[in-house]
Design a protein that fits this description.
By secondary structure, the protein is mostly helical. It contains 10 helices and no strands. The chain has one domain. The chain binds zinc ion.
Length: 189
Amino acid sequence: MPMGRTHRLINTYLCVPLVVGATVAAHWSPLQALSCGVGYCFATFFMNPDLDLDSVGYQSWGPLRIIWWPYQKILAHRSYFSHFPVISTVLRIVYLMWFPVLMIALLGSSVQMVARETIFDWWPIIGAYLLMFILGMIVSDTLHAILDVVSTDFKRHFSRHSPHHQSFWEHHGERRKSRARPSPKHRRR
Ligand SMILES: [Zn+2]
């Protein structure tokens, strides 16, 4: 698995070509392209599949990372629910809803009514852009999953062909570093 910063770097490099390519191919408006790009960046830097462990994405939430603590405890790292394309993105969005829903529920009926009216008033205006935002998140998360699979195969390949069946990464010091870390679940990526 690549480190969290590698994921960020590769996703960032691919952001502009992907969004511009899709905009040209699908004839998106500038606002649709912007919504998709912002969603893509949000998933890359904050809401990515590696929220299932103490990753750089998890740390990026600052004090609000407490929201993701139960998520991290419930899901095993790289489980289908946290890494499978599309499904994992939708599950993270649904999961994130528990925090505002709880807040609104605690704040009483007048706040609940305002929230309901706001959603009904704004959905026709921003609904389409919100879907583009989610599409951007899905593309970013899919790239993450592909990179995880490719890097794992790459490591396996080197592991089979390197002396003493040691992987390329172990040979270059990763093994020594990982020994100092207590468990893969708590390793920051
Ligand atoms: Zn991952």
